[in-house]
Amino acid sequence: MSAPPTGALWLIRGDARRLDAVPDSSVQLVVTSPPYPMIPQWDRLFRALDAAEYPAMLEVLAGAWRECFRVLSPGGILAVNIGDALRTGDDGFRLWPNHAETLLAATQIGFTPLPYLLWKKPTNRPNAFLGSGFLPPNAYVTLDCEYILLFRKGPLRRFAPHDPARLASRFGRAERDRWFSQVWSDVRGARQGSEGRRTGAFPDAVAERLVRMFSVVGDTVLDPFAGTGTTLWAAVRWGRNAVGVEWDPVTYRALRSQARGRGLRPAARPPARSGAVATGARSPPRRRRAGSGAPSR
Ligand SMILES: C[S@@+](CC[C@H](N)C(=O)[O-])C[C@H]1O[C@@H](n2cnc3c(N)ncnc32)[C@H](O)[C@@H]1O
């Protein structure tokens, strides 16, 4: 079988809550990490989106999940990397349960919640605890896991027997065993932006695993909170088409120049469903020889 072409890339400067340019049911996978409500890094951005309080911040995210539901095709998967926040509110220091709110919001929109992943980041500060030190009961558990919540739109996606794109997307037994275990503790956090600019980027390995776990070659992968484009580069590298949406103009410009630096020319319209014209055509990385971890459905 000849290697499929790498995918097309489409970049949109816009708002994840209004993906008007993206047609209904045109995307097979969303991999994203939104700004986390109640994390100070994102306060200014939420204020600019008219969301100064926690419920309004959650509503920004819910608006994006509604659009993801619309643009995903039946059987498509939404993967959301999100962390909870710790912060002092009117009632004192407390947890802001972003993952639980996201699970509920996406389920209310109509997504089917699936078993999720816990990404336990190896830490350089294993002894950094908050609270009353060695005296009970007012010490706090360290938040060292983020969540990768998984949802499906509608029924299972079906393929014809021996579908070539699906077979070309197969992963091996070792990958299956590692990737589909609930706790990922082997992935370090990404380096944050240069010049002290925090980007909230997740590492390549997170994007790459999710793209390979939940899409096949020729699919279209959307990141409505594209940031530095980690999802997009992983999607294109693995022969998928990619659609990135970014609201912040500076980040969007950086994204475009990153694309050019990678030899990609962002398209002016949505990628075609499959066999899209390669922009800076390269073949996706060769798969390691597949083990017997074949999907059962
Ligand atoms: C946590 S970062 C995403 C990081 C990304 N996964 C990466 O690896 O670089 C969230 C991004 O969403 C963008 N953003 C925030 N609100 C948005 C909105 N309403 N629509 C589109 N993008 C938005 C922010 O500017 C930021 O770049």
Could you name the ranges where pLDDT drops below 50 across 5 or more consecutive residues?
Answer: 274-284, 287-296
CATH class type of the domain at 26-203: Alpha Beta
Using only C-alpha atoms, the radius of gyration works out to 19 Å
Number of helices: 8
Quickly give the structural class. alpha/beta
Give me the side-by-side strand order of the main sheet. 1-12-11-2-3-9-6-10
> Can you tell me the CATH architecture of the domain at 26-203?
3-Layer(aba) Sandwich
Topology as a string of helices (H) and strands (E)? EEHHEEEHEEEEHHEHEHEH
Specify the overall morphology.
Answer: globular
Q: Which molecules other than protein and nucleic acid are bound? A: S-adenosylmethionine
Mean pLDDT: 88
Task: Indicate the proportion of strand residues.
Answer: 15-25%
Strand count, sense and barrel status of the largest sheet are:
8 strands, mixed
* CATH fold descriptor of the domain at 26-203: Rossmann fold
Helix share bin: 25-40%
Number of beta strands:
12
What is the name of the CATH superfamily of the domain at 26-203? Vaccinia Virus protein VP39
Distance between the termini: 22 Å
Which descriptors would you attach to this protein?
27% helix; alpha/beta; two-stranded antiparallel ribbon; binds S-adenosylmethionine; Rossmann fold; 297 residues
Account of the protein in words:
There is one protein chain. It is built from 8 helices and 12 strands. It has a domain at 26-203: Rossmann fold. 27% of the residues lie in helices and 22% in strands. It is globular, with a radius of gyration of 19 Å. The two termini are 22 Å apart. The model is unreliable at 274-284 and 287-296 (pLDDT under 50). The chain is an alpha/beta fold and 297 residues long. An 8-stranded mixed beta sheet has the order 1-12-11-2-3-9-6-10, with helices on both faces. S-adenosylmethionine binds next to strand 12.
